What we know:
By secondary structure, the chain is mostly helical. It has a domain at 129-329. It has helices spanning 2-20, 104-114, 119-126, 131-158, 161-172, 176-183, 189-199, 201-220, 224-251, 259-328. α7 packs antiparallel against α8. The radius of gyration is 42 Å and the shape is rod-shaped. 18% of the residues are buried. Mean pLDDT is 74; it is low at 32-41, 54-59 and 66-117.
Amino acid sequence: MKTLLILCLSLIALTAFAQQRQAPPPPPPPPNANVPTAPGNPPPPAGPGQPSPAVPGQPGAPIPPPAAGISPALAPGMSPAAGLSPAPGSTVTATLSPATTGSPAATSAAPQTALSGNFLIDNFRKGGPIMWPILIVSIIGLTVVIERIFWWTGRWFRRDPKRIEKVFTAIEVGDVAEASRLSRDSRDPVLRMMWNGLNHQHASLQGALQVAAGIEIKRAGRFLVVMDTLVTLAPLLGLLGTITGLIRSFSFLGNEELAVQAVTGGIAEALIATACGLGIAIFALIPFNFFTSRVSNLEFELQTAATNLEVMLEANTRAKREAELTSSR
Length: 329
C-alpha cells in the first residue's frame, strides 16, 4: 500500500510540474515585402494658358515608350499585352504577390503544431478546479488496476493443477501424510487451503478450510472496494464540475462585454469535467467487473476443492472403521 501511495504522489507532482511549463512564444511574422516605393516627383504645375502635362495612369494619358535596356515589369496575374512600361527616369520596383510571401495562416501553422502536445494540459486548465479531484481519482484508479493486473498474472503462473490431482490421488488411496507433503510450501491458493485443512483435520476440518478459503478470497478481492468507489465517485465529480461551470456561465450574463467569452468558458468547463468523470468511470468499470468475476471463480474453485477434500477424508475414515470392525470380528 505504501508503494501505491508513493506512486500516486509522484504522478501528481509530475502533472503539476508539467502544467507550470509555459509554451514558447510564437515566432514573429516575416517582414511584409509589399512595401510600395515612393513614386517619382510629380510634374510641375502647368502655367496659365498652358495645357497640363499628362500623368501616366490617368485616362487619356499617352503611354511613354520604355527606356533603353529596361524591360517592362509585369504585375502578377497580368498578361504581357496588359503590362505597362515604366516611365523614363522612374524607379523600377518588384512587387511580390501574396502567394510568394509568408501569409499569417502559414506562419501560425508552425506554432500550432508545436503546441499540439499541450492539448491535455490546456483542457485540464479549462476544466476548472474540479479537475484536481478528478486527476487524483484517475491516478488512484490507474494504480489499482495496474497492481491487480500484476497480482492476477502472478497467480496465473502460480497455478499447479497437476499437484492438486496428485494430492487428491494420495488422499483417495488413504495416504494423508503424502498429501500433506505435496501441498506444503505451495503458492497455489487451493493447495494452501488444502494443506491447512489436512493439518487440522483432527480438530475441525471444516473450520480450518473455511478460514483458509476466506484468507485467499480476501487477498484476491483486495482494492475492489476502492475500484467500486471510484466507479461511483468519478461521474459525481464530473456532475459537480458541470454545476460549477454552469454557475460560472450564468454569473457573467449581466456584463455584455464579457458575457459571450465567459459563458462559452463556463460551458467548456462543464463539458470537460463531465467527459473526464465519465471516462474514468468507464475505464475503471471494465477492470472492476473482470476482477470481480475472477474472485468469484476463485471462490468456486476453493469451495469445490474443500468439498472434495471433506468427502474423500470422510470416505477414508469410514473405510478405516469398517476395516477395524471386520478385523475385530
